[in-house]
Structures are given as C-alpha cells and as structure tokens.
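Letters spell out the chain; the tokens describe the backbone. To illustrate:

===
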Amino acid sequence: MSDFQLDQRQVRRNFAAAAATYERHDALQREVQTHLLERLSFYLDTPQRVVDIGAGTGRGTALLKRRYPKAEVIAFDLALPMLRAAKQHSSWRKPFDRVCAEARALPLADHSVDVLHSNLCFQWIDDLPALFGECMRVLKPGGLMAFSSFGPDTLMELRAAWAAADERAHVSRFLDMHDVGDAMLAAGLRDPVLDVFRYTLTYSEPRKLLEELQGLGATNADRQRERGLTGKSRYRRMLAAYETMRVDGRIPATWEVVSAHAWGPPVGQPRRVGGMEIASFSIDKLRGSRR
C-alpha cells in the first residue's frame, strides 16, 4: 500500500474555504453521484437510518432523503462551513440531520446504520484500515455501504505538467483500487464489488482547471507538499508543459473514479488484523455458548 500521508487539518481547511464556491464547480461530482445512487438498488429493505459521509453541501444527502423519505438521514462532514451550506438542501418536508465529524470516528452506535453512502470523500482519508473498520462497526449485518473515490490516475496530465517544471509534489495522490479492495476485505466487509470509470473534462486553459480545483477544495493536502509560494518561473513552466497536451484545442483533465459497494457482515465474521483473523462476539452470546 502507498506510504503517503494526508494532512487532515489541511483537508478540513481546504473544504471549509470552498463551502461557498463548491456548487459552482461540482458537475463531475453530480455525475458520479447519479451512478452511485444506482448501486443503492441492490438494497431491497426499507432502511431506518441512512448516513452520508463527506456530505459537503448536501446535494447528495437531499437525494438520499428523497429516496428514503421515512428514514433518518444524517449528513456527516469534516468541515463545518460545508454543513452550514447544506442547510439549503434540507427542507421542512424532507429534512436531514447535519453532524460535523470525521469518517474514522463516527458518533454512532455499533451496527446502527442500514445504508452508508459516500460520494468522492474517501480519497481524502489515508488510513484505510481505520476507515473501513469504522464503516464495518456502524453497519448493521446486511447493511449496504456504497461509495466512490478518486483513483491514482486522477489529474495525471496536471501531475505530468508539474513534473516537467520541478521535482516536487503539487498534486494529491490517491490510492489504487486494489489497495481499497484489500482494505475492505481485511476489515471484514462482505462481498465487495469495485469498478473503475474514467472521465475526461476539458478546459480552455490550464488556469481554469486550477480555479475549479480551488473552488472545490480539492487542492494538495499531502503532508510532503511544498510549503510556501510556488515561484513564477516554475508556474510558467508548468503551464507551458500543459499547453503541449491540448487535444482539439482544449486542455484535458482525467478523473479516475473507483465506485464500490459491500455489505455489513454477520455478527462474529472474522476480519484480518496483523496477519491474524479475529472474530468478535457479544458477551451474552459467549455466556450462552457456555450454558
């Protein structure tokens, strides 16, 4: 698995700063959301509790509430300004709760969630064992988790353009689908299914892409990122390198999207921890077996 680490405080700052501009730039996020919602058709029961992890400005949460009007729907996000912006999508007829919390420490009881949804959030969490361990903790047996995340080829053109300008990291890195799948299996999630899709967005010039990333809060949060201002000469070299990639007069930007779903396992199903398999049972069940 990749050894990079994200600065979670910087992630929070980036998205907090983008709360007012996010929906001006979220066309891709809405497209991915549409396909992610299709995965929910696998869940055939009527859920009591549905959670949206990394809800942002709440567009997706509102769609979940519309789909499950009788369920308790909760929007979780790391950035409080995003949740404040999400209030506009929570109506008195179809309200949802908003909670500021980190995905690896959800203020929810064990096995209390029927549907766990997350659209393009998990790429901002580098500790996959902790993330999927928490997802498994809150999912009910038979509950459905459906999520999307960016893969490592995302923004490969921008990464290549910066590489032509200097040797420092300017673009966030994202984990491979195989690393994600391995982490899901290790956590004990049942029957994971993962797919990869590629989207290519085009822009009139590289600066338009950079403005979009800033407006989304999707800027570099790698702990090893360069601190301080980027020199004008390096910035111009990056722009010049990107210009050579024009296709039909437009600047391309690739977005690799990993889309997945899995199920909450039965109580007691083992999970892999440190090369061993560990199964958990309630004390009452252990006492019952003794009798």
